[in-house]
Amino acid sequence: MSAPDPSFPDLRTLSTIDQVGVEERARRFQARSIKKESKLSALKLAVTMLDVTTLEGKDSPGKVKQMCVKAMRPLPGDPGIGPAAAVCVYPRLVRVAREAVGRSGVRVASVATGFPSGQSRLKERLSEIRYAVGAGADEIDMVISRGKLLHGEFRSIFDEIVRCKEACGEAHLKVILETGELQTYDTVRIASEIAMAAGADFIKTSTGKVQPAATLPVTLVMLEAIQDYHDRTGRMVGMKPAGGISEAKTAIHYLVMLKETLGRAWLTNEWFRFGVSSLTNDLLMQIRKQQTGRYQSADYFTKD
Questions:
Q1: Which whole number is the average pLDDT over 157-179?
Q2: N or C: which terminus of the chain carries fewer CB neighbours within 10 A?
């Protein structure tokens, strides 16, 4: 894979996005029928793509440890399910998560850069990244300043992402666009181009704190931006829809869209994630339904 080239993109070459066309294409992915065997495979794959997340003011070491256990063994009686891709926590709980997942292969992600508003000074945001990486984070989920973006300060956004990527060192950088605040698909496309050119390893829809969060149309716009960027540069960039995805059937729609837009190469947790706090249990319930023909009680699954 080629290294990112942090040169500012020529945004003048971007075509205006047809809103009606994007939304119609996204609707078509919801109408696809999937055979039972393929559905079970898709559900199992989705579990491996989860960034199991807790980002609440009441988060505690005990809650994070419990979440890590679930990420490593989503269904304790079935070692063929999972593990999840990562756990995602606030910086002060990274060390707890790092110790809990050990060498299981589950990565530790941390939100940083003044999450969720992105309003702190750059010096403080970079310090937060370095702190999280030093505590053991494999991945950093950063937020951009949407205010700057909406005021056309594109170069400033680009430069900040470059600096954040540098602060990550060996850790991967996911850049959160907070698409629910970007107003138009054209702005989402611009933000995606800037983030990828500045070195993002993933682009991510949302913090989960703003509505609307991830949607199929906005994710399609971002996937198409990834495809165009890959065609130009040869560099693969990952995608992470986050927030608002709580049902297994919706997750499958995303996977169908991913495959048909970017191809099989992206059908792995190296290149696609779901940022979730509530999707996990519905995936597990649907897997059990496919395996046994009946639903398990929701009480069968842990809440965290």
A1: 97
A2: N
CB 148 within 8 Å of CB 157: yes
- Quick check: is 282 catalytic? no
**What is the CATH code for 36-300?**
3.20.20.70
How far is it, in rounded angstroms, from Cα 12 to Cα 29? 30
Check pLDDT > 60 for residue 102.
yes
Q: Pick the catalytic residue: 70, 201, 240, 282?
A: 240
Q: What is the pTM of this model?
A: 0.94
The percentage of residues in the chain with a pLDDT greater than 90, rounded to a whole number, is: 81
Which candidate in 138, 165, 204, 282 is catalytic? 204
Active site residue 204: yes
Structure tokens at 259: 């495959």
What average pLDDT does the segment 270-289 reach?
92
Out of 39, 51, 70, 141, the active site residue is 141
Give the number of C-alpha atoms closer than 13 A to the C-alpha of residue 111, restricted to the C-beta side: 24
| Two structure tokens written together for 12 | 């003048």
